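New to this. Explain these tokens.
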Amino acid sequence: MVTWKARLADKIPADLGREIDIFETEIELKRQGKMDDKLFAETRLRRGVYGQRYDNGQRHDGVSSKSLDFPSNGLTKGPETVWDAPGMQRIKIPFGGLNPEQMVTLADLAEEYSDGVCHVTTRQDIQLHYVHLEDTPSIMRRLAAVGITTREACGNSVRNVTACPLSGVCRDETFDVTPYASATAKFLLGHPDAQDFGRKFKVAFSGCAQHACGLVKMHDLGFIAVERETDGVKQRGFDVYVGGGLGAVPHSAKLFAEAMPEEEILATAQAIARVFARLGEKKNRARARLKFLVAKLGLDEFKRLVEEERKVMPADDGWSAYLPDARSWEEEPHRPAGSADDGGGSSEYRQWCASNVYRQRQQGYATVTVRLPLGDLTSWQMRRLAEIVQRYVGDSVRLTVEQNIVLRWVSEADLGSLYGELDSIGLSLPGAGSIVDVTACPGTDTCKLGIASSRGLSAELSERLALDGAQRDEAVDGLRIKISGCFNSCGQHHLADIGFYGVSRKVGGTTVAHFQIVLGGKWTENAGAHGLPIGAVPSKRIPEVVSRLTDRYVSERNSGETLQDYTSRIGKKALKEMLADLMVVPTYDEDPTYYSDWRDPRVFTIGDMGVGECAGEVVDLVDFDMAAAEREAFEAQILLDEGEYEKADHMAYAAMIEAARALVKTQFLDVPKDPDSVVDEFKRRFYDTELFHDKYAGGKFANYLFRRHEDGDRAFSAESAHHLIEETNLFIEAAHACHGRLAEQQAAQPSDPA
């Protein structure tokens, strides 16, 4: 049988291929019980591989998850199970950009390895659920062959870099931020200065300040395009924001710099990453995001530290190498421009045009939004959509943070035929960007932190609101509803006109699903304001909450008054009184329907809710490097068994260099990678100072490294390779012990009262 690794060998970039090979080795080490549970968890998370919950019983589409045949993958270590059921694979799509070839691959993967559904997330990613761990290397290789990586899709790392899906075609943008978002994603991916965070780090780009597409102000690091004119010459730059984030307690990002020149943004991002890695919280995960560090230090001090860091960083050609391409970047339309006959077509077509079609700044072209309820489309739909995309727009596809898909550069003359083709595959729903286009996180369907069924409620609201569309007031039609299954705001409820997040309440000794109502959020101005909760209502009465709020808003609002302004004007007390009767829960005997959640007939329970996998546990950077050294030592053994003695020798030597460099990096972050520099720094900092010595062996194990490093005329044999591998393992163990001793000494020191 030909493996995907062999079949795609000439199509996968060497660096991505090596990364996937490493992960496959780590899975094998875990299978053998030779890799620490916590370390393996963070390792797989950094490749986008999650566990997921299975107590949901009823999915949003009415199919019982209990009936799905997903046997255990059998990876066990005594009582510890890697996964006792399939999990989820997150796939990074920088700035949401896809092409038809990639779409077909995603469709194939969903069909072959998942439940046949491609899920679009609120960060322009794709997720596949019910995936077996042992299948993930094959998934990663097939993605890599079409230019997609899952690396750092999760974990304590730089997540997917997002950007406006209308970049380049928006009528209000300053300039197209696509190439800048792409360059940032490539530059920060796997960057050594972005590997030692206490939590995740999110980056976004926006082409303008006034709209919501980029949501810059809810990010750790955000860039808004600006232009300045100097001596009659326009120069591109960015207003840079830092320290934003949602979660349980949202923070709005602060303006770090105005009109930063385009050539400075990557160096600044690197400097910010270094400061965050060095000073960010590592022990208390609840305080480990950049927003807390900025708040703790104050913006001025944070800026000073970043500026100082920027001065001492080694120069990197990558900071500006992308600029010529960025300045000349321009998308080419796939078909000639045309004009549409807006008076023709059915009423359904006209409704779709009114809500889902956006006229681009390029005359004769439009952008079409494919609305995806719950962010889902089947593998069959994805494959057919790829064919449609290829015909009408070529490569111009973007995922959106509202869980939809955007087709750009549609000739206006093609709108009617495009609508017909989308309609034939069930992707012609109107209402994109309206109140019916509800955003929801996975909630209790698959998330271990989910408390209430955000997807079930979202489906219910969307269907009800769609039925009321003809009678709905225009002011209500433009509202956004966003739902999270818990307080962590993965559904971005803090930014919605009407937001909800899942909670639970005990009523007569029984747990009842509730949602907190969040009002006051501002979706525009790049997430301009965060709402606050006003009270919890039983899940089954949330549709009534929406109806009551919107009806009162329509009847009582002043001319031009937004819902945010209206709720601020009437005040929290009036809002609470308006909804107070909906907060009452009848007894089970009076009405048992309150005691089950949306799209789930069972009596409500929080099930196997547990520790979420949003970022994994904090793992010291040294632990990652040591794990890499151990993995290379293990690979050396495999090469030895295969009779590749010279390769085994070189791999074992590389493992010792990796372990030595791991220690040196605790004192000297920018140590060069070449063996001479690593050995020199290790000898000076750890051997000569006797930090590496222990009371039993002294510096004996360091001599294994020195001897192999100095042996330039080495003869390779099975015996010599075997000996070197043994020495390598002893050296790595000594390096572990050295780091452990130093960590204990540091922990014993009195803490800084500041």
